[in-house]
Specification:
about 200 residues; mainly alpha
C-alpha cells in the first residue's frame, strides 16, 4: 500500500468533500481520485477499502473541526462565567460554518452509521468520547453548570448547527430580531447555562 503521508492526507480531505457533496453513496475511489485531481486508481493504492477510507475520514474530521489551541488559550484566560460559555459556543458555531464541508461530512457519517453496524460502533465510540471530553473540560475549567447543563447545551447546539448548515431558512425570523446563528447562540446559552460562577457537577 502506498505510503506518501501528504498524498494520503489530500485523498482523505478529498473524501470529505465528496462525502459532503454526494453523500455516502457517492463516496467511491473514483470520485475521490477526481476530487483530489489525481490519476484514476490512486485512492485504491492508499486505502484497503471503503471502510478504511471512512475510518480515516472520521479521524480527519475530528482534527479539522477541533478548536484552535491559541483561540482556546485566549478564551481560558477569561473569567469562568456564562459569557465565557457563550464565547465557546460562538467558536464552535464559527468552526462548523467555516468548514461547512467537514461538518456536513460528519452528518453524512452519522447517517451512514445507521446503515453499517461496524461503522456505528466505532463512530458511536468517537462521538461519545467527544461528549465525555466536553463534560470533563467543562468541569475542569470551572464553567457554570454541571453535567446536565453540558448535555442540554450539546443537544441544543447540535440542533442549531444542523439547521444552520442544512436548512438555514427554517430559522430566519423564528425569533423576531434575533440573528442566525449568533443571536440564537446567545439565547441558547442564556436559557441553558446558569449565570454566575462555576458550579459543581
Amino acid at each position: 500500500m502506498a505510503g506518501n503521508p501528504e498524498r494520503r492526507a489530500a485523498l482523505v480531505d478529498a473524501g470529505v468533500e465528496v462525502l459532503a457533496r454526494e453523500g455516502a453513496r457517492g463516496l467511491t475511489f473514483r470520485a475521490v481520485d477526481s476530487a483530489a485531481a489525481v490519476p484514476v486508481g490512486t485512492a485504491s493504492n492508499y486505502f484497503t477499502g471503503r471502510d478504511d477510507l471512512l475510518r480515516q475520514i472520521d479521524a480527519r474530521l475530528h482534527v479539522r473541526l477541533a478548536p484552535d489551541p491559541e483561540v482556546l488559550g485566549a478564551l481560558l484566560a477569561r473569567p469562568r462565567d456564562r459569557s465565557l460559555v457563550t464565547a465557546f459556543m460562538h467558536d464552535l458555531t464559527a468552526r462548523a460554518t467555516r468548514d461547512r464541508s467537514g461538518y456536513l461530512a460528519l452528518l453524512e457519517m452519522r447517517l451512514e452509521a445507521t446503515r453499517r453496524p461496524e461503522l456505528r460502533a466505532s463512530f458511536t465510540t468517537a462521538v461519545r468520547g467527544d461528549l465525555d471530553q466536553g463534560l470533563f473540560f467543562h468541569r475542569e475549567a470551572g464553567l457554570p453548570g454541571g453535567d446536565e447543563t453540558v448535555v442540554v447545551l450539546y443537544l441544543a447546539m447540535l440542533g442549531l448547527i444542523l439547521e444552520h448548515l442544512t436548512l438555514p431558512d427554517v430559522l430566519d425570523g423564528v425569533l423576531p430580531g434575533v440573528g442566525v446563528p449568533e443571536g440564537l447562540v446567545e439565547r441558547i446559552v442564556a436559557t441553558v447555562v446558569p449565570d454566575g460562577a462555576g458550579e459543581p457537577a
